[in-house]
Amino acid sequence: MIAKGRVLVVDDNQINTDIMCKILSKEYEIETASNGEEGLEKFPEFKPDVVLLDIMMPGIDGYEVCRRIKSSDVGDYTQVVLVSEKASSAERVRGYEAKADDYIVKPFNHDELLSKVRVHSRLRKVQLKLLSANEELGRYNSDLEQVVEQRTSEVVAVRDLTVFAIAKLAESRDPDTGEHLVRMRMYSQILAETLAYDSPYADLIDGPFLANLYRASPLHDVGKVGIPDTILQKAGRLTTAEFDLMKQHVIIGAETLEEAAMGTCCGQYLLMAAEVTRYHHERFDGTGYCQGLRGEEIPLSARIVALADVYDALTSKRVYKSAYKPERAKSIIEAESGAHFDPVIVGAFTARFDDFLAIQGVRAVKPADVGTQTALTVGG
Fold first, then answer.
1. For 107-160, how does the pLDDT look when each residue is reduced to its tens digit (9 = 90+)?
2. Partners of 379 in beta bridges
3. What is the pTM of this model?
4. 3-class DSSP state of 356
5. Domains present along the chain, CATH in parentheses
6. DSSP at 219
7. Is residue 310 within 8 Å of 324, Cβ to Cβ?
């Protein structure tokens, strides 16, 4: 029998607590607390997968409870979802600054609450699998060097597949993205290999750069796991407040990856992944977000992924648009040379455009296949 996941509900309103318990009790083991102090007392012993945490409570508020949970020895991978009547982007940002993983506004939709708990419960399980894989690799390093040499390729494959699964989890919340991660990874590799062969950036792109970019590029939007579905799946134009909140996905993702990179054997590519995540919405002319970097202030990896990401977004159907034909997308990107995109990278894109078309015309590579490769050359 598979053990149920655990959810800790911390709310001073008994009606809200009863509603959440009723929604979740069929699938999860539930513990409740009526204030922040009680929640912190029950947290270490109960060891929940997900904490549903009210913000406005007597005594310690939800922000401080979240900070304490996240800084505790057992709280690193616990998923904290703030539940509040406050819906402003400022309040949401404050919650994410307290290291919350998600935010839901009262009165909440019952199906949405259950779906969010399911998503965060799965995410925690994947994170723990990745942690277990890293710990296992550490034991190999300290015990038997010969065993490490024999098993390295196998462990790397498992690690890459696990990290790719995290990226797919974030992507799965958008029903129209399809094989976006696989395609844009291939586009990024084509651009990088072209730049390595003949460009002003040739000296910056070597074998490790290509391998790290191959593994890092699919993680560029992993921070969207912290953005509400109502914004990710909105069919119309986002409001200013919604767009401000959407921008936070680059910070959420980068900080998560930077923390994951510390003390792990895969630190270099996770650091590149954090770099790509944080800066892939910067623009060459300095009008992007979140830091307004311009030109070569933007890391090369992020400039490459930015073009690959936009091309795939333009040529894919999304909730807010139909797919553009490749030639139209090409014209848009060329028109943005020197504004949105690095002109040198646009030149590489134009030179290898036929290879971009070839990727769109062949069967998409499955994640299981992708996880065993270190680099990919398309079209010779």
1. 888 998 999 899 898 888 888 787 777 777 766 666 656 655 556 555 555 556
2. none
3. 0.54
4. helix
5. 5-108 (3.40.50.2300), 170-370 (1.10.3210.10)
6. G
7. no
